[in-house]
Amino acid sequence: MTLLGFVDDVIELRWRYKLIIPCIATLPLAQAYWSQHQSTTIVFPSYSHPSTLIQALWEQFWALRRTISPFSAKSSPSSPKSAESPTALRSISVVQRRGFEVDGWYYIYIVMLCIFCTNSINIYAGINGLEVGQSIVIACSLLFINIVDILIGGDADYVQNHVFSATMVLPFIAASLALFDFNCYPARVFVGDTFTYSAGVTFAAVGIFGHFSKSLLLFFIPQLVNFILSLPQLFKLIPCPRHRLPRVDPDTQKLKPSVISSNPTSPYYNRINLTLINVVLSLFGPLGEHTTTRVLLGVQFFFSVVAVVLRYKFGSVFPVQVVNGVNA
């Protein structure tokens, strides 16, 4: 993937190749997963009555609210189905969990996950410090859940998976912190696609071999929002220029949203390019490049906290780990 990023920096590959080539490049990763006889079973809770799940989610919501606001009511109101279902928090631990063996479909998911992680960071970039900064936030978040799950413990395989995942992400954090110092505004080093592709496939490998490949997507919420915003332009439903970077106001030296067309006769005249960076700039007005990076990294950090809360607060409803290597 790093080589693919370097090639893209040199000859600027078309998007069709950025989707096809990673499919081939991720085959060794899928092969390594298969050769270790890792599980391809996905586990979901099996409830005897839908009201049990409703009650469980209701109780978890109020537990989360009490955690955030200690001055809230000491007891949560009863849900509409509380009379029909057992006490949620106690019943969840004994609810039967149903496993679904997806076999080869999981390897397709691995390939798709690698493609998403690499390209989502690649298109959510363009200002000094953003590529490396978002990668550091995600990497530190993944290291945090590795440490927490190691401390919580479990069977030997489960702990070993998180130890292996942590050993992969620690060197990445160390190298990225040094790189971030040179990549901050005003940048002395530009990372290009070489770094974004390398970072994306690192996160995918950490999630896959750490057995939290589904939870991994929670830490990519800003990248997912940016990807969804970009879909009309990526699929050519709306004109898409080669670069959709914000423009610099020559008078104020601040960043402003870039537009699709500056031609008054165009139907897309003065319409902003569909990226999260441009949306933030349109909402908060022109910002300096350093300030823009801080705002976007703040958004990334906020959603990382949300991801951690969702993983551990609702883990009893949608289990994030099951013994014997079942995927979380």
Verbal overview:
With 328 residues, this protein is mainly alpha-helical. Among the domains are: 2-43 and 104-216, no CATH class; 50-94, no CATH class. It is 59% helix and 4% strand. The chain has 13 helices and four strands. The strands form two sheets. A two-stranded antiparallel ribbon has the order 1-2. Strands 3-4 form a two-stranded antiparallel ribbon. Residues 72-76, 78-96 and 317-327 have low confidence and may be disordered. It is a multi-pass membrane protein. InterPro entries: Glycosyl_transferase_4, GPT. Belongs to the glycosyltransferase 4 family.
- What is the percent of helical residues? 55-70%
Helical stretch tally: 13
Which regions are unreliable across 5 or more consecutive residues at pLDDT < 50?
72-76, 78-96, 317-327
Order of SSEs: HHHEHHEHHHHHHEEHH
Total strands:
4
Q: What separation lies between the terminal Cα atoms? A: 25 Å
Shape, please? Answer: globular
- pLDDT averaged residue by residue: 78
Strand content: under 5%
Spatial extent as radius of gyration: 22 Å
Quickly give the structural class. mainly alpha
Q: How are the strands of the largest sheet arranged?
A: 1-2
Largest sheet: 2 strands, antiparallel
Pfam family, one: Glycos_transf_4
EC number: 2.7.8.15
Keywords: Endoplasmic reticulum, Glycosyltransferase, Magnesium, Membrane, Metal-binding, Transferase, Transmembrane, Transmembrane helix
Membrane topology: Multi-pass membrane protein
